Amino acid sequence: xxxxxxxxxxxxxxxxxxxxxxxxxxxxxxxEKSCIRIKEGEKENVIVSCTQCGECIDVCPVQAITRDKxxxxxxxxxxxxxxFICVGFCPELAMFMNDEYIEPFKCVACGQCAKQCPxxxxxxxxx
Amino acid sequence: MNIEKLKSAHKLLKEYKxxxxxxxxxxxxxxxxxxxGDNTIKEKTVTQLMKDKFIGxxxxxxxxxxxxxxxxxxxxxxxxxxxxxxxxxGGITQYPxxxxxxxxxxxxxxxxxxxxxxxxxxxxxxxxxxxxxxxxQGKADKDVIVFIDGNSGTIRIExxxxxxxxxxxxxxxxxxxxxxxxxDKRNISVVSAGSAANNAYIGLLNFTFYDxxxxxxxxxxxxxxxxxxxxxxxxIKALVVKFAGVKxxxxxxxxxxxxxxxxxxxxxxxxxxxxxxNRMRQVGTANIIExxxxxxxxxxxxxxxxxxxxxxxxxxxxxxxxxxQNTPDGCWYGCSMSCAKAVDRFxxxxxxxxxxxxxxxxxxxxxxxxxxxxxxxFDPYAxxxxxxxxxxxxxxxxxxxxxxxxxxxxxxxxxxxxxITGGLELNFGNSSASLEMLHQMAxxxxxxxxxxxxxxxxxxxxxxxxxxxxxxxxxxxxxxKGLEFSEYMPKESLAQQGGYGLTNKGPQHDEAWLIFMDxxxxxxxxxxxxxxxxxxxxxxxxxxxLNGLCKLPWNDIAPADNKLTEEPAKIPxxxxxxxDIFNGVTGKKIDKNELIVQSERVYNFxxxxxxxxxxxxxxxxxxxxxxxxxxTAEEYLSRQERYDKQLxxxxxFNPEGKTTEEKMAALRxxxxxxxxxxxxxxxxxxxxxxxxxxxxxxxxxxxMDLPELVEVVKKHL
Lengths: 127, 717
Prior knowledge:
The complex is a heterodimer of chains A (127) and B (717). Chain A is an alpha+beta fold and 127 residues long. Helix content of chain A is 20%, strand content 17%. Chain A has one domain (2-126): Alpha-Beta Plaits. Chain A has helices at 16-26, 55-59, 85-89, 112-116; strands at residues 2-6, 37-39, 46-48, 65-67, 73-75, 122-126. Helix content of chain B is 42%, strand content 13%. The chains are: A alpha+beta (127), B alpha+beta (717). Chains A and B meet through helix 3 of A and helix 7 of B.
């Protein structure tokens, strides 16, 4: 299974990953539309992104969230009713939403962010 | 299940095509009227007055009902209506508990307007199909189904002779019949009753939702007041609505963002705190069974006592182990509180479905207490079996539990005997007798049929036919206004006595539940404090019913810092959530005070409606003494220390050397006087006369001095 691995100690909070993600998926450089978020801390930065743990699969009332054959947790937007339980229940706080859309969005380990990371704080790895 | 055969027996009585509407800020601005007597189907426009004064939900239901009936209308008169409505907030998917339907009708038990709220998908799907409410009037000749297709804009009335009556089968049959495929099943909701509603006055309505994981329908109940009985009297077999395409923004709200924000905040609270607080996601409302017992509040043996040594056998722990865990059990999308619990593959041991493995929707707390402890039944399997059969037969578990407890006490006192019961040995604890009585009720036979008339009628019959002492029956028969009490022991909480007694529709816990505030936390010590609580909480809770909302996510979860707020009982943070989602949907700018005024308008309207129907006065707010104190020496002696102390400290009556009867009489006089004083204080706070009539001044102050209301109250001032 492909997963975005995080090494927060290497993160310099340049936010290039957020730009890469939102540009890839929403054609817009906007951290509020990124599936990866960098929270700048005093000691260490925090990289928030999906671990593909799948807890959201179990709480979705309409089974719009499933794990694909590669192990990636994906949202079927045509089934989703926009309840955002998955957003409130994500243990990583890595299920995101934006008021412009009625469905949530999440990291599918596409790797575009990792390509832009100058310090290799994030990378796509097989588990 | 041969669905084609069932379908081919249908006869189309009427088909009606309508333009698909658009929802603007929570309203379709249109309602649907159907007359089963002459098969009229028509659309009505929602007026500005309706939206301003009645908001929606049960406000719309009561408004239409008022216009449909006269003071002479009975529950089984053709002009009586059943009105089903969501509300402006209903159908949002982000905030837990936003899918309730509110059902209003004149009740066979009370003769007054009844409102009952229920989960399941019907209300929201009705709205998305284009209607803020559905009025059903008239009576069909033969059993009919009303089908609303919200995607094609078609309404059909079909004669349907061959489907089952009992809900767990009928719901499956109709979901299968009207869905195009498995995926389409979740777009269907069925409203149905059951075979007992053909006979008993305590018939309920089941509302379905399709459980995509279990791949079966689930049943939620509009339980109180016998509306299922009205439904069957109109020869409605079922209502079916179908709407594909639910999304999170179909209400076309003024501000989606504020709704999203409030919803996600509450989801997170539930995620973080439910395990530590009420465990609603694990066991639903049944989490409080042993807590009630611990505080002497769990009704046992017809409310004689508030606890029992065997309660551990039906504790929340027992039911948690029987309920299927870790599966979404919301009765509408987005309810992360997920309290619609179920026991799967439960094998029935009695009745027509004996041997079948079924889903039991429950047990909810009221079922465990009513069908269980109140009847002295501490067998979890018996409680689940009773729960299942009550639901599918369409019997209100609360009324059934309370009236069975009453019958058991009558039986043990020799007021009724085996000859009268046709052999049923109705001793406390006899679950087999309770189950057999329930099956008789469904078959319309024997003592079970009689029992289905409810406590008020049973008291009259026992006095008239069996020479029972009316004073004793009135003391122990736990009904008021004709409705059976719900399952909390109010003896030691004066505020909860008021919470049950000073209500519009009879003693239920929809309007007020103040036991903990009053007794456990001692937050409302004076009459004025209690009166304020008996003003605020019934009004606040009424508001859920105006909007298509569930009460549980308000206070069955609380923010971590709630205790630090000025008024923790109100859960101020959640009150603000409701203000935010209402404004978010409707675009209005109400605050928490205007929210209460919105409710006051409808609450007073309902009170005046009761008065118009010949009830609704102080005399009707009296409660049986069993709700206030010990009726029998057995009860007094069981808590002698407590009562003796109260006589000494509160009543100024020295119990030493007095007989139990003397002490009971002194306590009774004191407690009845306390209730009268509370009534005075509450009426004053609510703006009513000492006879319980809303004054014209008060109606003006809350903007509800409509001419038809003033005309009614003027006759009583």
